[in-house]
Each structure stands twice: as structure tokens, then as C-alpha cells.
Design goal:
Elements lengths: L1 H13 L8 H8 L5 H13 L2 H30 L4 H4 L18 H16 L4 H17 L5 H29 L14
Length: about 190
């Protein structure tokens, strides 16, 4: 029953939503190619505009992404050994070709949903955008034919959990390491 639902939803997104104009958008969301490094550098520089809080946030983000990436790719994928839809379904038309690596969970979904809570903690004004990007990247993984919807859902759930832990670590570290300025009340309310 669960596999039938997963297959039907995969076909609805991967085949049903397929549009020639949407292919390059979804490809870019999945793999920004030569823009990946400039995007990462720009994000790092944005964090550093927040000075000490930004530096702590960047360190927490890097650690959170390391944990999310390794947990999903190195620990869980070899345990579940789930084949990708393009290997199982004859009617799949994967935009990046048939990939024989394991599918469950989606590392992209895990990493982007792990990053969103940390980014939102440092930049509250971009909270909606951070989650929207995480959702769009996750959807792109089904659209391009690399993941089952359940891969993406599991990755998003795992990522959100790890991101929440990262967000809590960021809050504790900023309260502990960054002393309030003179005349400001401390986060604990003490002197």
C-alpha cells in the first residue's frame, strides 16, 4: 500500500508536472553547478555581517550540515539500500540520468531542512524564504526523478530535527559566549 502511494505521487510530480520550461529551474534547484561555490561564499559572508553572532551561527550551521549530511548519506542510505525510482520504474525519465546510488533518505532534503532552522535563528527576517528554498529543493528531487516522495519526506523530517538541535545549540552558544554590552540586560535577566 505504501509503495503504491509513493509510486503514484512520484509519477504525479515527475511525469505529471513535467514542463520543458520547468526542467532548467528544477535542475538548478537540485544542482546549481558552477554557482554552488559563489552561493556558499555569499551565504558565509552574510553570516559574518552579524559579527560574533554570525560567526557562531556559521560554525553551528557547518557542524549541523556535517552531521545531517553524514547521517543521511553514510549511515542511513547503506542501512535501507533503497533503489532510486529511475532504477525501478521503466517510465521514469530522470533529468540527470539513471543513478544507481541509494535513495532513502534524500540527502538534499535532509541538508536543506537542517540548515533552515539555523539560518532562521541568525536571520529571523528570512525564515519563510529559508523554508521555501528547502521545500523547493526537496520537491526538485522528485521532479528530476532522483527520489521517491517518501525519501524527501523522511529527509525533511530528519533534517528539521537536526536543524532544531542546531538552532538550540546556536541559542546556548550565543548566550554563553557573547556577553551583553554594557547597559544591556543579560539573556538570563541577571546583571
Amino acid at each position: 500500500m505504501g509503495q503504491a502511494w509513493d509510486t503514484a505521487l512520484f509519477r504525479a510530480v515527475h511525469l505529471g508536472w513535467h514542463q520543458a520550461w520547468l526542467d532548467p529551474v528544477m535542475r538548478a534547484l537540485t544542482d546549481p553547478g558552477v554557482f554552488k561555490i559563489p552561493i556558499l561564499v555569499a551565504i558565509g559572508l552574510c553570516f559574518l555581517t552579524r559579527r560574533a553572532r554570525g560567526a557562531v551561527g556559521l560554525a553551528v550551521l557547518a557542524l549541523t550540515l556535517t552531521v545531517s549530511d553524514q547521517t543521511s548519506a553514510t549511515v542511513l542510505k547503506p542501512i535501507f539500500k533503497r533503489p532510486r525510482p529511475s532504477v525501478v520504474l521503466a517510465d521514469a525519465r530522470p533529468l540527470f540520468g539513471v543513478r544507481h546510488s541509494f535513495s532513502f533518505p534524500s540527502v538534499h532534503a535532509t541538508n536543506f531542512f537542517a540548515a533552515a532552522p539555523v539560518i532562521a535563528a541568525v536571520f529571523p527576517e528570512v525564515t519563510v524564504a529559508a523554508y521555501a528554498v528547502a521545500g523547493a529543493v526537496s520537491l526538485s528531487r522528485v521532479y528530476v526523478g532522483d527520489h521517491w516522495p517518501s525519501d524527501v519526506a523522511a529527509g525533511a523530517g530528519l533534517g528539521f530535527f537536526l536543524g532544531f538541535l542546531g538552532r538550540r545549540a546556536y541559542g546556548r552558544l550565543t548566550r554563553t559566549l557573547i556577553a551583553p554590552r554594557r547597559g544591556e540586560a543579560s539573556p538570563s535577566g541577571g546583571p
